[in-house]
């Protein structure tokens, strides 16, 4: 049994982007391309996805892989997170391996008439505690991208990240398939009772630890809703990881339900995750 988990004092904001989130002189820049996918695992859904390929990738050896939910938000080089730029800098510095990023949007059902809106499938895909989203990645997304680039099959070289419902989704993928993904980065993860995710701290405590490395970012001013208290839920996850001996880290700030803190510490969290 490890020492008792202690709730940390929140690290106060603001949370600005640092130099690793900005283009740096002499650092090669990777490329980002946009694509569309029609899924069979989630029948009838359509989604955009984006692929980041680092300048160092030559196709001579398999690249590490990192998947992001809500892909457009993370892949935008001028957006709030600027993941491709962070990848450029960390890969150049040797702080993470040559990594291909796969940024996947949630699926939607196209509108059936001109006066109707597409139907979002995000919560079903992300918040459901099943193997379905892991199957979608392993049977559809990775083979699709792998037809163009040499991707690793080593689970220790595969990571997955998301915010909110995308954060619990990242954990669910690794929890369901630790033989395929063993690194998780969760930003203000929704470990709450949207679709039963509040049970995870208890499942973690009652199960043999799985070979998963986890970085949790949470904020003391996150949501408090009928489905649960987001800060408390993340603290319960951290306490469960602590109690059971997982390789985990918690970054606990005073932020709200957004990506400001997560984006600010993305270079630090990726360096820790890929160490």
What does this structure look like?
By secondary structure, the protein is of the alpha/beta class. The chain contains nine helices and twelve strands. The strands form three sheets. It has an eight-stranded mixed β-sheet, with helices on both faces. The model has no long low-confidence stretch (mean pLDDT 97).
Name a few traits of the molecule:
22% strand, 275 residues, 8-stranded mixed β-sheet, alpha/beta, 9 helices
Give the helices and strands, then pairings.
Elements (H helix, E strand, L loop, with lengths): L30 E8 L7 E8 L10 E6 L1 H5 L7 H11 L5 E6 L3 E2 L9 E2 L1 H6 L4 H15 L11 E6 L1 H12 L6 E5 L12 H6 L7 E7 L4 E2 L2 E2 H15 L2 E7 L6 H5 L1 H8 L2
Parallel strand pairs: 3-4, 3-7, 7-8, 8-9, 9-12
Antiparallel strand pairs: 1-2, 2-4, 5-6, 10-11
Helix pairs in contact: 2-9
